[in-house]
Amino acid sequence: MSTNHDYYPDEYISGILSSVKTIAMVGASTNEVRPSFFVMKYLIAKGYRVIPVNPGQAGKEILGQMVYARLADIPDPIDMIDVFRASDAVPAIVDEALALRPLPKVIWTQLTVRHDEAAHKAEAAGIQVVMNRCPKIEYARLCGEIGWSGVNSRVLSAKKPQMRQGFQSFGLRQPK
Question: Rounded to whole angstroms, how far apart are CA atoms 28 and 53?
Fold first, then answer.
């Protein structure tokens, strides 16, 4: 089934972010001012296991996590692949993902990254796809954190924040 990649219902995004535990971040950077670095740091703080993929840094560590050159080198199953690469790199990443066993549940491409043909190929194999979105921003929006800085999250909640190690969080709303 093909998803409308111009609009994602909150339930779709929340369902993904609630169900994945292990994320392979393709294009992870050691540079702490790069978006991939602070997205990785945020996701780790939220309890996700984030595995960096960067051929130039393979064998080293980013934020205490071993870096792998390719998705196929990761020894554990991957729930989601978060792509911090240009749109023209997405088809090869999808092909690499389709060779994994078990298949990942989700391929997520970052802001400005979109490749509809590759997305349809992944969806045909049963993988959910999100394009041109950031999981850090979506998580913060859906749990209300982004509203703390004055951004309209389109989510209202009277829920009391849960104090957790590292971050104060409302947590994600569970899909219905």
Answer: 6
